[in-house]
Amino acid sequence: MWKVHIYPQIEDKGVDRMKRFIAKFGIITFERLTLKKRIILIFAASTIIPFLCTALVSNHAITLILSKNLNSGVQSNLHQVQLSLETTISNLNHVSQQLAYPGSVGMMLEQYLSATQQYQKAVLIEDIQTELNLITFTNPSTNLVMYYFKNEESYSYMFQNNAIREDFSLSKLPMLASYYGITYYGPHISNSLYNNEFVLSALRRVNVPGREGIYVYIESGFKLTQSILESDRIGKNSFHLILDNDGRIAYSEAGSIFPQNGYFSPDGKPSDQAVDRDSGLMNGYYWFKGTSNQGWSVVSLIPKEDYNQEKNRWIMQMIYLFAIFTSIGLLLAWLLWKMVYKPLNQFNMEMKKVISTRIQSPEARTTIPEFNYLLKQFHNMKNQIANLFHEVEQKEKRRADLEVEKLLYQINPHFLMNTLDTAHWLAVMNGQKEIDRLVLSLNKLLHYNLGKLGQKSTIREEIDSLRQYLILQQIRYDFAFDVRIEVEDDVLDAAVPRFILQPLVENSLYHGLDDEGYIQVDVKQKDHIEITIQDNGAGITQEKIEELMSEQKNPQEKVGMGIGMSYVKRMLESYYEGHAKLDIVSEISKGTTIRLTLPFREASQNDERVGRG
After folding, report:
1. Fewest beta carbons less than 10 Å away: which of 61, 91, 104, 309?
2. Rounded CA gap, 20 and 458, in Å?
3. Using CA atoms, how far apart are residues 292 and 245, in angstroms rounded to an integer?
């Protein structure tokens, strides 16, 4: 017979590994789900997945739209603020040019500083003051104008059009930009004593010939820019920053997060993170920046919550719609399950009728054609089961007849043992000790051997049976051979199969044992039971050993009671499920050693009683 071995592909190992992983971590596969759960899962998936895809696409679209609209609005307002500041700075530059040298007022200042007569100085003072008043009148946004004189250790000022605060100091002002001999300062409280509003200021070198440290200081109103900043607010918590050329904060409406004189960065230190970018997210605020041609920048800060307010409102609407769609999907799944449940319940009732042996019942029907087809097939199956039941009943009747016949066949062996028992007592009464010994051993051996093959026994019973067998053999062959049996007490009650010792000893007797021969039987307990049967007979060849171990033997070659080595081998494999071991070692003219290695099993009382039965 040809045997075809099919080896699994390599990919099967991965599948097995995945199954073990699923079994270990309790992951529920689709095959384990009930029909009800599958219906709910499929309806939920068919409802939720399209909705989620639509929501994701809508989310992306609305994010782009909101971001684009918001960014364009903020950038537009920033551009207006930028233009307003540039206009103010340009006005400061224009006014300062008139006050610097060689401007008209600057030339008067040079004459005043060069005059030596008091009368001439008084006239020049009046002319300069008149010009300053005219300039401030023609430039309404100009608040404070004065000449600033800076020495190495002190400073002074002249020709101011308003009273000056006592704490006036240029070092305290936030510088916005500096180039071409003029320095612009960002929004700050006016240095005029009677003005508490924010202003922009400029400090310009006068450049009077032969004189150093003379500057003109001018302040311009910040109201127009402030009104534009107010109109730029998105939400109640938006803020603005004005940065100088180096990214330092010259003006801040969010001083706790972005303090003045710090740098526009997450940690307030110089950083390139926001230098080359127009927008971003920093410290929980979205920021947008507009940069002027002079290098200073205006930054609009919008809290993340306000920025995402419209988007969050849309997300809440999607959540409500998701709940509605999910509820509708689950409701439809429940209705479908109710539609399928009734036919399934009829299937259940039909099965219960089969279980309760009510096989011959009328065929059930439903309103669904597919289920009607299944019910028809189930009805046909019930009829087949009924036929099988009838066949089983007939076979049971035949088996009962065979049991009676078997009991009849058991009468003869029992009659034989009873007859042997009668012969035993007759030998005792007539003083025939040898016949008595023979009959008694034969009767005991037959009683043991007539037990059910494969039935459990013990080492003790096997040894007793072996002794009876040896007595019969010594009387039968009429020669004296030495049989030594040594058994440890701890293994006497160990459970073993029937007839594992007699065939092995029979093998030693059969293969060349003479009058001076001996058989040594040792039964010891280690971590297992070790049974050794050794003789000093003629020995057997390896071919003969393989023949003895073979399960395919000629019946004419079997010895003793017809139970050979192949029986022992099969019994060990069946009883111990491959955990027992049988070894035969033999040398010609020196003898044979048979070794059994058996797992230790303690016999229960029921096993002993059955074994002795």
Report:
1. 61
2. 42
3. 10
Which residue type does 275 have?
Answer: V
For 153-158, which contacts have Cβ atoms below 8 Å and span 24 or more sequence positions? 157/217
Residue 205 DSSP one-character state: E
Give the span between the Cα atoms of 176 and 243, in whole angstroms: 7
| Residue 163 DSSP one-character state | P
Task: Return the DSSP state at 198.
Answer: E
Q: In what order do the strands lie in the sheet with 529-535?
A: 482-487, 518-525, 529-535, 591-598, 581-587
Q: Closest Cα to residue 145, out of 131, 162, 128?
A: 162
Contacts for 305 with CB less than 8 Å, ≥ 6 apart? 312
505-531 burial, b at 16+ Cβ within 10 Å, e below that, comes to bbbbbebbbeeebebbbebeeeeebbb
Long-range CB contacts for residues 31-36, cutoff 8 Å, separation at least 24:
35/337, 35/340, 35/344, 36/337
Helix 542-549 × helix 565-576 angle, to 10°: 60
30 Cβ contact partners less than 8 Å away, ≥ 6 residues apart = 38
Tokens of 48: 């939720």
Contact 237/301 with Cβ under 8 angstroms? no
**Interatomic CA distance for residues 285 and 465, integer angstroms:** 99
Averaged confidence pLDDT in the chain = 76
**Checking DSSP bridges between strand 142-150 and strand 495-497, what pairing results, if any?**
unpaired
Q: Is the peptide bond before 102 cis (omega within 30 degrees of 0)?
A: yes
Contact 283, 270 (CB under 8 A): no
pLDDT for residue 524 is more than 90: yes
Strand-pair category, 518-525 with 482-487: parallel
How far apart (Å, rounded) are the C-alpha atoms in residues 303 and 281? 9
pLDDT in tens, 479-520: 667 888 999 999 999 999 888 888 888 887 776 566 678 889
